[in-house]
Amino acid sequence: MASSGSAQPGAYAVEIRHLRHFLALYETKSYWRAAELCGLTPQALSKSIRRFEEALGVRLFDRDTRSVRPTLFAEEIALFARNIDAESNSLRRKLDSLLGTGTDQLAIGTGAAAATTLVGQAVVAVIQQRPNLAVNVVEGTYEGLMPRLLQGKLDIVVSIMTSDSVDRLIDSRVLKVEHYRVYARAGHPLAGLERVPLGRLLEFPWIAGDDEDRVAEEVAASFAAVGLHAPVPKLRTNSVLFASSLMLQSDSLLILPAEMMRREHETGLAVAIDTDCRTWTRPTMVFFRRNSTVSPDARLFLRELKRIVEL
Predict the structure, then answer these.
(1) CA distance 231 to 123
(2) Which helix (DSSP H) or strand (DSSP E) does residue 283 occupy?
(3) Residues near 72 by beta carbon (within 8 Å), at least 6 away in sequence
(4) What pLDDT shows up at residue 11?
(5) N or C end of the chain: smaller count of CB under 10 Å?
(6) Helix ranges, the chain (H)
(7) Which domain holds residue 210?
(8) Are residues 41 and 72 in the same domain?
(9) Range among 66-75, 89-98, 151-160, 192-201 rated most confident
(10) What total of structural domains would you count in the chain?
């Protein structure tokens, strides 16, 4: 329904809790799962959703006995609801600090490559200038960190852009370009060879991440260009530490950003295999919520990131 008939939009103020109940149902498409997330009974959640619909004067979900489907109105409202919820979380943290019930906090999400040096150096520089600031750093993948940024649980995310799409509520800036290389242990049969044909790489076992991304697609395209199938990993893992450790103990190969293998490479534990194909690249980017209030501490962190990259 485009209008609820007797309902009067704006008859009462929309509350943050109604926005959160709406977002829970929008994301889970299940009254039972959404109610569990919100700490409510399904009946109480349903009542909250109905009141939200009455306040807006539109139907947000089409319901039947098997499914819950967001309407066009819900799709548009979700964009605003996420931003309002995120700003509310940020405001709560700031108020806690001002009231003395919390501390000044900066919550940063980082990908594994950025965590090796870039984010660490920026955090050290920020803490030196803000000694009373509490910094919380969460490591994860781009796909795993974005929802937390949208929810206001993170202020900033620094990560390699492993996808070609960004949520409409997220703004981003390119920090630098990461170069991906094929890595092996020191003493590997391919170590020291120049312009190794891609076909030779298939003679050895491979380790890969547990998900497919744009880098995997670029690698597959390089193999396809010479009439070969991309390597089929013998092992998949979401742990970079485990993958690199296993590589150093075997003849396995893996592809990682050069930044992530800098220490192993400089200490001679690992070598980058010189292949006869182009270099695979992806940008490291900083992400933040579009049209959100950026705290002074977050702005300082962004300035330090820029300074470090420029150096």
Answers:
(1) 38
(2) strand 280-289
(3) none
(4) 47
(5) C
(6) 16-28, 31-38, 42-56, 72-99, 112-116, 118-129, 142-150, 198-201, 214-225, 240-248, 262-266, 296-310
(7) 178-282
(8) yes
(9) 192-201
(10) 3
> Do 171 and 302 belong to one domain?
yes
Over residues 70-94, the mean pLDDT reads 79
* Tokens standing for residue 301: 């962190």
Nearest to 181 by CA among 217, 215, 209: 215
Residue 146 located in a structural domain: yes
β-partners of residue 242 are: none
Q: What is the pLDDT of residue 93?
A: 64
Please indicate, yes or no, if residue 168 is contained in any of the structural domains. Answer: yes
Query: Would residue 262 count as lying in a domain?
Result: yes
pLDDT of residue 203: 96
Q: Which two tokens stand for residue 162?
A: 């492993």
The answer to the question of residue 1 being in a domain is no
CA neighbor of 174 nearest in space, from 279, 293, 305: 305
DSSP one-letter string for 132-188? T-EEEEEE--HHHHHHHHHTTS-SEEEEE--SS---TTEEEEEEEEEEEEEEEETT-
Q: Which two tokens stand for residue 272?
A: 């980058």
pLDDT bracket for residue 96 (50, 70, 90):
low
